[in-house]
Amino acid sequence: MERRNFLKSVAVAGTSATVLTSCTSASGAAGHELTAGHIVHTVYFWLKDGLSDAEEKDFLNFFEALKNVPGIHSFNVGKPAPTTPRDVVDNSFQYSLIVIFASLDDIDTYEKHPDHLSAIDKYSKYWTKVAVRDTELL
Questions:
Q1: What is the H or E stretch that residue 47 is in?
Q2: Domain spans of the chain?
Q3: pTM value?
Q4: Which of the four, 54, 62, 99, 103, has the lowest number of CB atoms within 10 Å?
Q5: Based on the number of CB atoms within 10 Å of its own CB, is 121 exposed (0-12), middle (13-18) or buried (19 or more)?
Q6: Where does the record place the Stress-response A/B barrel domain (predicted)?
Q7: Residue pLDDT, tens place only, 82-128
């Protein structure tokens, strides 16, 4: 597999999501151009053990609740890729979210938006751990 094209479109529980298609390209997800200054907000979710299929499906509504928060440049949901196991790879999470923002002001709006906060309150019952990695593109 060619490393610069290692992420592809994924299906998540019957919903389609597109993730970044190239790590060396200036193109972003869903046809949006990524440029210096954009913020890549990556969130990893570890779900509680023993969730039923219905509970996991309900958890996926969390992403639907976030999609329309103002300031989002692109929005992508995924699961761990079946890449070659290596010491530096952590595929222990169940879902990831990649949201691109055009500016720090946009991510600030997102983080404080009532829909974002409400979704966290409603769906956090399904996860045991969340890790956030924010990157400002050069």
A1: strand 39-47
A2: 37-136
A3: 0.77
A4: 54
A5: exposed
A6: 39-135
A7: 999 999 999 999 999 999 999 999 999 999 999 999 999 999 999 99
3-state secondary structure of 17: strand
d(CA 71, CA 110): 7
pLDDT tens string 45-79:
999 999 999 999 999 999 999 999 999 999 999 99
State both tokens at 68: 């329309």
List, in order, residues 6 or more apart from 49 with CB less than 8 Å away.
none
Which amino acid is residue 94, in one-letter code? Answer: Q
Contact status, residue 96 vs residue 44, Cβ threshold 8 Å: yes
